[in-house]
Structures are given as structure tokens and as C-alpha cells.
Amino acid sequence: MTQPETTRNSLDDEAGCPRLPRRTNRSRSGPIGFVRSLLRILAGKPQVPPSLVDNQLLKVIFNRRSMRSFAKREIPDDVFAAILEAGRLAPSTVNLQSWSFAVFTAATWRDTFDRPVPFQGQRAIIVMGDTYRDRLVLDAFPQSPLVEYTIAVVNASLAAMNMNIAAEALGVSSVMLSETGRTGLLDAGYLKQTLQLPDGVFPLMTIIFGYPRGPYPPLPPRLPLDQICFSGKYHIADRAVMDDWLAQMKAGYKASHLLSSFDAQLRLYVSKIGQAEADLKSMVFREGRGD
Question: Are 209 and 81 contained in the same domain?
Fold first, then answer.
């Protein structure tokens, strides 16, 4: 939900998270509700303390958007190498570096998947959790596959975000995908076969890179800090705020996908989740592997 900018004042809660003035959208359906939700999205902007508005790194982070339209302009090798280096240098639990990156140009992507890179991207990285490589020399979690998997997900996600931010700093836009062109988390089994992944290596996301074509999209609806921060006991989210957020999500999706809808996209995900669950279990857990 879009909120007005505030600074630290009496509205702050005990944890230092601003309790922003709350507005609710009572008309969440129909044309009026659709327009109101779009206006809220268009009005959204990061809440930057005035003393930090000139910080260059914060500008990169706050201005980043997921792009779904890329120009036909190649990314230089040195620029892409720097993006990969940012992933390699990401922090990880006990420095396990439990990730692998499948790296593609537009040509090698087409050779591998027999289709173009989504959104006319010029480069792509499939980010994977990788517990197989560490097990070659160090089996740290023989009886704790869920912990091992979770640590790998956390580590690989940190590497993915490092690459995402590095790209943005170099003028290269990106989008992280879980289901587009059979190359995301929901097609783990297909990727295991296509990329010949050993047990313990599992796809998490695909990052598409390219120079943006056209302006950046508006900031997607973000929940206010007072809904995601708490001190002491867990804070139950305000249902009205969550309803308002969902209305904005649906309106934003409809505005950018004229022939589809948010609900239709959710149905697509649901249709693939069962198979993805089974595929991931076979990749993550060790029962029956004989290792």
C-alpha cells in the first residue's frame, strides 16, 4: 500500500519501525476500485530519509525494478564478468558457497532450450542451490537435509541479489523468474534432466539481464513497515491493509498483462506446484540415494 513519506517521530513503534498513517481502499472491486489501486501504485515511492537521499548505493537499490522488456543491445563481456564476480563474492553460511550458476548468452540459451531468452534478454543465469559440491569434501549435514537445503537456498539467494544489484549499478536491468519458459523453480525436474544436474543441485530462479527498453515500471505495491516489523511478540498483519495490497497486486497485474489476470497466473502456478514439489524432494532429500 502506498504511504506518505515520514521521518522518525512519535508515530515510530518501539522497534524503530515507523507506524505510518494507514489508509484503506474500501472499493476494491469494479472499475473505480481498479483505478484507485492503479493510482496508489503510481504514487508509490521509496521512503528515503532526507539525510540519505544522495547516497549512491541506496539510489541503486531503491531505483531497481524488475524489467520485462529489453533492448537488442549486447552486454559486454567485462560487464557480465563483474556481475558474476559479485555473485561469487556474496556472503554465505560458514563460507560454504552452496550455489552454482548456469550461465547463458542469447545463443547458448537457444541452443539449450530451443527458444529465445524471455523478454528478449541478452544474458541469463539460472541460480541453483548446490549441496553436491561441498559433499565431495565435507558432509556437514548428513542427518539434516532440511537444514542443508535451507542454508543452500539462503546462500544462493544472497548471491542472486548481489548479481542483481551489481547489474543495476552497471546500468544493466534484470528480472528474476520462477516460471517463464520452463526455466525456473517450478520446472525443476525438466531443468535437472536438461542440465544433467546431480542430486543435491536444485534450480531456484532464473535471472534475465539486458539493457532496458523504455522507462522503468512503477514501484510494485509494498507493504508498510508497520506490517512487517515487530518487537517482542509477532505482529499480526492488519487484514484491511492486506486486502488493499492484494487489490493493488491484481490491478497492477491486469494493467501490465491485458490478456491475463493475477488469478490466472496463480492458477498456472498451482497447476505446476505438485510436480515441482515431487521433483524438488527427489533432489534435496537423501532417502534411497545410497550415499
Answer: yes
Same domain, 103 and 207: yes
**Which helix (H) or strand (E) is 160 found in, with range?**
helix 145-169
> At CB < 8 A and 24+ separation, what contacts does 188-192 make?
188/276, 188/279, 188/280, 188/283, 189/275, 189/276, 189/278, 189/279, 191/126, 192/279, 192/283
**Kind and range of the H or E element at 217?**
none
Q: Could you read off the pLDDT of 21-33 as tens digits, one per residue?
A: 444 444 456 888 8
- Angle (CA) 89-125-259 rounded to 5° is 135
Task: Judge whether residue 43 has pLDDT over 80.
Answer: no
Q: Which domain holds residue 48?
A: 1-63+234-279
Number of domain units in the chain: 2
For residue 36, is pLDDT > 60?
yes
Distance CA 101, CA 217 (A): 27
In a 13 Å sphere around the CA of 205, the CA atoms on its Cβ side amount to 19
